[in-house]
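Dear colleagues,

As part of the handover before I leave the project, I'm documenting each prediction I ran so the next person doesn't have to rerun anything. This entry is a single chain, and its sequence is reproduced below.
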Amino acid sequence: MKKPLTGALCALVLAGATALVNAAPASAATVNFAGTVALSNCSGSLVRMPNSVDSDPGLILTNGHCLESGMPAAGQVITNQSSSRSFTLLSSSGGNLGTVKANRVLYSTMTDTDVTLYRLSSSYATIRNTYGISPLTMATAHPVAGSAIKVVSGYWKKIYSCNVDGFAYRLKESSWTFKDSVRYTSGCNIIGGTSGSPVVDAGSGQVVAVNNTINEDGQRCTLDNPCEVDQNGTVTIHQGIGYAQETYTIPNCFAPGNVLDLTRSGCVLPRP
């Protein structure tokens, strides 16, 4: 996975972040930085469930391995944990609009998927009235092979464009295993700091996955070198190819009011 950036490296790369902006082509002009956020070491997005309403508290989607308390261990699921983490909200062009703050880690894991969901202290209505920003909507359908996607990194203020190449039955990286992962075509050559970026369907504009890793060196199933394992146990390595974790089942785990309920019908997220 693309480990969070820290220390001197952070200072170095942020100094040149503007030069890395890669505007979306005209055919995908509706996919921009509006609704994305920058974390201290990762990327993320302000998201809504299909049944969310303006008065609900906002939600931030990022990776499990971007959790401020450290990467969850294999098999670990964190719910309802206090948080005061801040996120920089971006404009459509990537400008910094201001800061929104979490009051709770609703859910975080690196088991089967790689996801953290924060609850904000502000509602969608407050955020829209203050900053003019609306959340991205979480899709409820499985991503489609061949579809055009955008990986939108708030940390780097860069948009990667590629397609869904296919799906990994199991994706193993060090001690973690992810299920039914999205495999990118080569255009999305993600780097550190893009972790947690929303993967946006270029047609619908909805979030279909959350960006999380790439095989850097061609190694087999090691940290930063995930490998695919099929139903028969055959291992395949795709050096230089990135992956994301599907998010279409997450809305099934949220009751009205953006309340997390892992017992709801259709919710398959791992439980504590």
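The helical segments are 7-15, 124-131. Residues 100 and 212 are 23 Å apart (CA to CA).

All the best with the project,
I.
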